[in-house]
Write a structure and sequence with these properties.
CATH superfamily of one domain: Cupredoxins -  blue copper proteins
Radius of gyration: 27 Å
CATH topology of one domain: Immunoglobulin-like
Distance between the termini: 59 Å
Order of helices and strands: HHEEEEEEEEEEHHHEEHH
Bound molecules: dinuclear copper ion
Strand order of the largest sheet: 3-2-1-5-8
Number of helices: 7
Helix content: 25-40%
Number of strands: 12
Shape: elongated
CATH class of one domain: Mainly Beta
Largest sheet: 5 strands, mixed
């Protein structure tokens, strides 16, 4: 009903129903207690008003009453907390099989790139029925990626990665907003997310899309011939990373200045400081722009910092390339 009245955005993701249920229960609880207390205040004001000679019974301490008005709010508050925590965890942790898409925010547009290489601006095409994970960063100031119909919102920060995931449930076109004031044209930093049936999405991805939804796109999406990891490989070689880092088992025998990069993704490495870190996108990014910060054990501090020398997109591409380096593929 609220949706019909235009008070709520439509529900188009797997999490939307649960987020709305929690929200509506919070509103209902607040309304119930607000009306109850407001009603009692009014009722008592009338009942015990001056001139009518009725006296209230004074209560001097009551264990039952105190237990009740402590116990009931406690149970309600803990219920809200547990329910909220459950939904929060579901939103915060992307499933392992999620499709990866990279997002770079800048004043004032969203740049998106699919693993297969296809790029988009202010428009994101995703398949329905599959979790999608966005790895996001900003080139300048803080932005926020917000899709009301999916009930997800995540700040996009310069200098580090944040992630967001969702699973679209219904094909359609949904609003995408920047939800963090980021300058003059913040209000125009908008776009849309187009959810498509998986086979339509595959067609779109390969550039042959002529379905009704894709046909309405404004043509801002460029068709790239190379995948993210191919682009990353090119950037990797252009930047000279290959001089020190081996990318296959063969190279690892001769090139030993930097750690070999085969099969690194999702592993853990030991640092000079003795700390073990998980090799995720955030760690790889830090190692590229500020390598001295987290030097891998057993290697000399000789790698130059690439902060400012690579664009955020190049860094993401190089990371996609490093993550694509599987040990079995190197033979
Ligand atoms: Cu970007 Cu507001």
């Amino acid at each position: 009903m609220l949706r019909k009245l235009g008070l709520m955005p439509e529900q188009a993701s797997s999490i939307a129903g649960e987020v709305d249920a929690l929200y509506l229960v919070l509103v209902a609880l607040t309304a119930f207690f607000g009306l109850l207390i407001g009603g009692l205040v009014l009722g008592f004001a009338v009942r015990y008003r001056r001139g009518r000679n009725r006296k209230a019974t004074q209560i001097e301490g009551s264990l039952v009453l105190e237990l009740l008005w402590t116990g009931i709010p406690f149970v309600i508050a803990m219920g809200i907390f547990l329910w909220g925590a459950k939904i929060y965890l579901a939103i915060a942790r992307p499933p392992d099989d999620a499709l990866e898409i990279f997002v770079v925010g800048k004043q004032w547009m969203w740049k998106l790139q699919h693993m297969e290489g296809r790029r988009e601006i202010n428009e994101l095409h995703v398949p329905t029925g599959q979790p999608v994970k966005l790895t996001m960063t900003s080139e300048d100031v803080i932005h926020s990626f917000y899709v009301p119909a999916f009930r997800v919102k995540q700040d996009v920060l310069p200098g580090r990665y944040t992630t967001l995931w969702f699973e679209a449930t219904r094909p359609g076109s949904y609003h995408l907003f920047c939800a963090e004031y980021c300058g003059t044209e913040h209000s125009r930093m908008i776009g849309r997310v187009v959810a498509m049936e998986p086979h339509d999405y595959q067609e779109w991805l390969t550039g042959a899309a002529t379905t009704t939804i894709a046909a309405t796109t404004n043509g801002s999406a460029g068709i790239a011939s190379s995948s993210m990891s191919d682009l990353g490989k090119a950037a990797f070689e252009r930047t000279g990373c290959a001089a020190c880092h081996a990318v296959d088992a063969e190279g690892a025998k001769t090139r030993m200045i930097g750690p070999p990069l085969v099969g690194l993704a999702d592993e853990r490495v030991k640092l000079q400081s003795g700390v073990e870190v998980a090799v995720d996108e955030a760690y790889l990014r830090r190692s590229i722009i500020e390598p001295m910060g987290e030097l891998v054990e057993g290697y000399q501090p000789v790698m130059p910092a690439y902060a400012g020398r690579l664009s955020e997109e190049e860094i993401l591409q190089i990371i996609a390339y490093i993550e694509s380096l599987e040990p079995e593929a190197s033979r």
